[in-house]
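ok so I'm stuck.
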Amino acid sequence: MSEDPFQYVYVRVADQVEAEIRAGRLPHGARLPNERDMGAQYGVAPGTARRAVQELRERGLVVTLPNKGTFVVAPDGDHRQG
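replied:
not stuck anymore, here's the structure
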């Protein structure tokens, strides 16, 4: 994946997670790592990981449940149950 110097880091992280979701490596119902772990996984600060998760929520790819975590939902309205 080429790095776009005019793209925010959180968007790059969100794009990478979206690619994993669409490739099936993060299936419907999968729980995303917490912000600290996600930051370590993608080499970014926890705040950047938090913003990436917010971006993924805005894209309709994940939902965050308080005190539970952030989970992958079916992309593009594909609501097949696993």
